[in-house]
User: Fold these one by one.
Assistant:
Number 1:
Amino acid sequence: MQSIISIQNVGKTYAGGFTALKSVDLEIERGEIFALLGPNGAGKTTLISIVCGITNPTSGTVLADGHNIQREFRAARSKIGLVPQELSTDSFESVWNTVTFSRGLFGKAPNPAHIEKILRQLSLWDKKDSRIMALSGGMKRRVMIAKALSHEPAILFLDEPTAGVDVELRRDMWEMVRGLRDNGVTVILTTHYIEEAEEMADRIGVINHGELVLVEEKHALMQKLGKKQLTIHLQNPIDTLPQGLDAFGLDLADEGNQLVYTFDTQREHTGIAELLRALNQQGIEFKDLHSSESSLEEIFVNLVHQNQHARQPAG
Ligand SMILES: Nc1ncnc2c1ncn2[C@@H]1O[C@H](COP(=O)(O)OP(=O)(O)OP(=O)(O)O)[C@@H](O)[C@H]1O
Ligand SMILES: [Mg+2]
């Protein structure tokens, strides 16, 4: 099936000469929830702005549902709803009028029933006559989402949707996003909350210094997540691993003072008992055991870190 968004070779160098995106290739599949993770300044908002036609790329092309975002802007843009990171919400207008007006901007016929539905879904119905400026921050963010959904887009971009949103509301929002996906909407979100990506996403992309350093199915990542390490601190250092331990795939660390055993927590049988027995048989004594688990957060930090080192000039 053709992807709903196709990003090919997209690069962006801002007027001042700063390169925010190098050469990004990314295909977003129809109906998925895709989470884009990355530290501040990685290029997430820049990428979203390009796909939404707000910023022009320096190179490359973007297709939204088959339409070229530059050459067929209106057709491409009408498929997309965008909730921007920066809220522009000091309006005197009412919630109802603001959301209704947004729909009109896309040339769609009025549909009060649709507006009512999304306001209710977002728990904004009792605020429909309030002025935007009189709402709390979390409510304003929900109004932005209502605006983005007003023209029934097939693709929804959420740039930091839950920044500054309380825990309960965040859960409601996740629920809503899942509901949208169930109705066939493709959702791309950026977040700094790793657990949000873990909870929501079908696939995860990590961007750093304008480069996509990883794109993976969440479940595949979770398997990496399921990896645990047992570090065995030896009484006496060893030079080489005895053959009797081959089956465990151990690594020697800390100049032969440590054995590192990596195992899968999702397997019922970890093999730790056998390993300790085998060590005993080989006459290898140890003084301490230490286990650690890699989280998505760790994978993320490592990736970002590696990428940073790779960038530093040698020497
Ligand atoms: N209009 C602009 N002119 C020049 N540089 C810009 C402009 N907009 C963004 N940048 C730079 O491009 C880089 C990427 O910014 P971007 O907003 O895409 O990051 P981000 O990943 O969304 O970060 P955050 O998590 O903080 O929102 C940053 O270094 C930023 O300073
Ligand atoms: Mg941003």
Note: The mean pLDDT is 88.
Number 2:
Amino acid sequence: MDKKRLSELVHQSDAYNAYESDEVLTWCGGCGNYSIQNALKRALVLQKIPPHKTLMCFDIGCHGNGSDKIEGYTIHGLHGRVLPLAAGASMTVDPDIKVMAFAGDGGTMSEGINHLIHTVRSNYPFAFFHHDNQNYALTTGQPSATTKKGCPMNAAPQGVMTDPINTLQLVLSLEPSFVAQTLSADIDHMTDVFQKALCHQGFAFVNILQGCPTYNREATNEWYLRHVQRVEEQKDYDPTDIWAARRIVAQKEKIPLGILFLDTAQKDFLHTLPDRDPASHFPTREVIPRDITEFLSALE
Ligand SMILES: Cc1ncc(C[n+]2csc(CCOP(=O)(O)OP(=O)(O)O)c2C)c(N)n1
Ligand code: SF4
Ligand SMILES: [Mg+2]
């Protein structure tokens, strides 16, 4: 069965519906957050991960308002701080729980850029979905570190004076283990990339070029679709070659999409820790279930 057909069938399944929440969606019409969350649900279902086996950590922002739009365990943390939140969670939850983090370009590339650097270096075991809509959207369209130079924004009507930061170049300079880029206008591509990120043993950095029709009128879905180039369609592209990845994100002709870099040999943070003699398992495995019925009834 082709991927498109499979993806459509997933959308109609009970496993997909288990992720649907009753909350009212509040994003603007045409917002990329709809398709991102749709692709995430498809990817989780295709990976056979049910809602009760997830822990989704959300930053503050438009994307973060998705925290109650999806079933599963969710935490809505502080602005710019979702990475240490998810890193801590990934160290302490049961290893069967899939930890994920979601944040915008504002929180990630300014307030929390220090956390990004150390999370990549430490290779914590969780997947990170970076919603890059090139602005601080929830606070009504201020420029972020990824806004294009010269682009007029609220609070910068003359346009931003600095060049945008090259997020992928920064991440690739930190010896990452997984770096991918995808596009909110292409739900099948996102579903595919998200599944690979969910399977990765280590920190999976997924940059999502997200449409924000309300505040980012320059990089529209149509504009992106004209400018992207899928690395999986380039037969000589080698995602295990860090310099190939660094070259492709440095050039300005086309925006690369797909798995740009993958190092499966790198151990994630948990597996770099020495065993606590004589135990050779995670501390969470040592939690002993206790019957607390008697204790609870004493409190009534
Ligand atoms: C430390 C801190 N600084 C600023 C804010 C105000 N604030 C809340 S959301 C937001 C914009 C978020 O932009 P981004 O992270 O790109 O997410 P988006 O809304 O674009 O999805 C800002 C500035 C805050 N809540 N906390
Ligand atoms: S302001 Fe932009 S990111 Fe926020 S909900 Fe509207 S379209 Fe989406
Ligand atoms: Mg943003």
Note: The domain at 3-268 is CATH 3.40.50.970 (Rossmann fold).
